[in-house]
Structures are given as structure tokens and as C-alpha cells.
Amino acid sequence: MTDKCNNPKAPRPARRLACSILLALATGGFPALAAPSPAPAEQAAPATISYARVADLVTSVSAVATVRVRSATPLKRERTPDLAPGRARFYIEADTIGLIRGDSVMATRVSFLLDGPDSKAAGKSLRKRSFLIFGKIGPQVGQFQLASSTALVAWSPANEALVRKAIREMLAHDAPPAITGISSAFHVPGAILGEGETQVFLETADGTPISLSIIRRPDEQPQFSASLGEIVDDSASFPAPDTPLWYRLACSLPDALPPRALSGLEPADATSAARDYNAFHQALAPCNRTPQPVF
b/e map of 119-137 (b: 16 or more CB within 10 Å)? Predict the structure, then answer.
């Protein structure tokens, strides 16, 4: 090897290799091999959608399905004059993975329209991704109509489990109905200063009574509860977040009692009732209905 390194008549590539090996041996070994490039990071799992957003969707549609997108083709601009600049409408073709809720048979391959950003990257970003879609099965085989341009959710085990949970709970025969307003409220002062009870009666879509109760005692935190039925239930409790009753209250109650609900009350009682209602409303976990971004 030394001869090859020192021999001017040896081929240049052979001389270079031999001299490199000798130099490495003289300096204590070969240079360290370069570390392999890290593998591309896996795509982050979709964020879990909120219970309130899912409840909004499942209570307003007749079909929910899981699909995997095959293609997303933007429609020509002249066919979508209603869209704002910078927006595009995509014709989506997808394979049906499963029908979670529906009033008719769903084809193994479906198509639907979806609005999104007007860019080539937007359409490409949808391909081979799985989604939960909310809407109705169309009159023709293979058609699906989304309830809105945001009526789809990136699929994940957590999101599908939440959707199934919301369907079971929100569509149960004893699920609390939609709240349409507040009919009345009254306040009864207690025997001692700082004691009293406020009751608020709600109006609902099907006439099922719902009432709120706020009890105050000196040096104690207010006690909140919500009752379903004609009679205020002394054993009723405050609705936990991500439950049907919480959803109906947190997402439907107005920020303050309407004046008509306080009509007929003495000024002091009206003030106390309004204060207690505000405390109940603020104690509810906030209603997050923000759609999950898709693009």
C-alpha cells in the first residue's frame, strides 16, 4: 500500500485511495461515518374536535360517515361565481370506510363538494386523508351533500369515538331538547342576610321544562343545579362539561336574563335573580363551537 502511495507510475485513483488509508491509520483510524439523515417526521395526529362542535353537527344532519379521499379536483371559476376571491370549490371523490349514522344505504364510493383555499396545494393536501363527513345521502347513488363547507372532521380514533358518543347521547329519547328562550325567573330571600334562592325557567323546542336553581348561603359558594321536568329536583346537580345538558345550556343560554323574565319582581329580587343567573352562566364551561381546520 505504501508502494502504491509513493509510486508516481501508479494510477492516480489508486494512489489517492492508498494515501488516504495510510493517513487514516497514522491518525488513529478512519473518519467517522456521517450520521444517517433523520426520517421525515410523521404527520401529527389531528386535534380532537370539541364536544360542542360535534353536537352541533350530529343534531343537524341525517348521515355521518367515514371516508378516505381519492381525488380533489377544483371546479372552474365560472362554475362557482358565489365564492369569494381566493376560494375554490373542490369536487371530492372518496371511498366509504363506514356509515356511522344514516337513513339509507351509502355507496362504497361517494362524491361531494367542498370549499377551500384556491391553491394547488389545498387539493393535494386532501388526497389519501380520512375524514368524518356530516350531511345527507344524495338522491343519486354515490352522492353526498355536506351540511356546510366545514361539516367534516379529520379522522382519528379519538374523533370517531367522540362522534359516536355524541350521537348516542344527543339522539337518545331522553336527551335534553334545544333551548329556545327564558320564560321567567323569581328570587326568594332567605331568613338571614346573604341567604336566598333563585329559580329560572327555560323554554324548549318540544316543551320539555328545564329549570335552573341557584342557592346562596352566608359564607358559602353558590350551589348550582339544573332540573329536567315539571318539578324542581332537589337532587339535581350542575351539568358536567361535554354532556348533553351542559351543551344545551352553555351553547344556548343568553348572557343575561331578558327583561321580560324579570317582569313582576320587586326591584331588589330582580337584581338578585339577575346576579344569580349571571353566576350560573359564568360557572358553565365555555361552549367551543370552532370548526376544526381541514386545509
Answer: eeebbebbeebbbbbbbbb
Report the candidate in 98, 141, 94 with the shortest Cα–Cα distance to residue 114.
94
Q: How far apart are CA 67 and CA 162, in angstroms?
A: 17
d(CA 96, CA 91): 16
Laid out side by side, the sheet with 196-204 consists of 179-189, 196-204, 210-216, 223-228
DSSP per-residue codes, 74-117: EPPGGG-TTSPTTEEEEEEEEEEEEEEE-SS---SEEEEEEEEE
Write out pLDDT tens, residues 259-292: 999 998 999 999 999 999 999 999 999 999 999 8
Assigned C-alpha cell, 17: 485511495
Structural domains of the chain ordered from first start: 51-170 (2.40.50.120), 179-283 (no CATH)
